[in-house]
């Protein structure tokens, strides 16, 4: 787990500015600097995942679970599936591939740490000997070998990054109960498929 935290704690590694907001147990969320935001509150979603239609709809529904936060500062559109998403396409792009550190993280959201970003990719690792993608199970974590990884758990976490939310441990050394239960706390013992109280509070405080 320590290895995972070291590799996916991108903001800490890059020395990015983080903001701790709130303070009550239900609002101990953690966010990136206010410059790391979408320039528009209406986000298009396109993907070129080769998974079957049922799995694609799981992904689409999970992305849109952030829309259910009330009041929702962002609105994600219904996913459009393509054979290949053009490089100039803006919005949220869902794809599979390899990336630096993908032996220790099943997903990444490159572009989320770009100021006023107009495109963020959610990349699901195609390192198949390390990540066994599933619709029904998640974890447990282990430092080597294949790990069962829930598509929806990874999706909701990475879309949180795309919006501007950081990992809880990047803002505080001691988790609150709310932070521990949040989807932004990358953990490998249970399914986490929709924003929690802590995630919702952070999403509403992003400043769009």
Give the rounded overall mean pLDDT.
87
Note the run of SSEs as H and E: HHEEEEHEEEEEEEHHH
Unreliable segments of 5+ consecutive residues: 1-15
Helix/strand-derived category reads alpha/beta
Using the alpha-carbon principal axes, give the shape.
Answer: globular
Query: What's the helical proportion of residues?
Result: 10-25%
Measured by DSSP, the beta-strand proportion falls in 15-25%
**Which sequence of strands runs across the widest sheet?**
6-4-7-9-8
The radius of gyration over CA amounts to 16 Å
Query: What count of helical segments does DSSP give?
Result: 6
Q: How many beta-strand segments?
A: 11
- How many angstroms does the end-to-end distance come to? 33 Å
Q: How many strands, what sense, and barrel or not for the largest sheet? A: 5 strands, mixed
Description of the molecule:
Strands 6-4-7-9-8 form a five-stranded mixed sheet, covered by helices on one side. Strands 1-2 form a two-stranded antiparallel ribbon. Strands 3-5 form a two-stranded parallel sheet. With 208 residues, the protein is of the alpha/beta class. It contains six helices and eleven strands. Helix 3 runs parallel beside helix 4. The N and C termini lie far apart (33 Å).
Concise description?
The protein has helices at residues 2-8, 10-14, 53-64, 151-163, 177-181, 197-204; strands spanning 18-20, 30-32, 42-43, 45-47, 75-76, 80-81, 91-97, 107-108, 119-125, 131-134, 147-150.
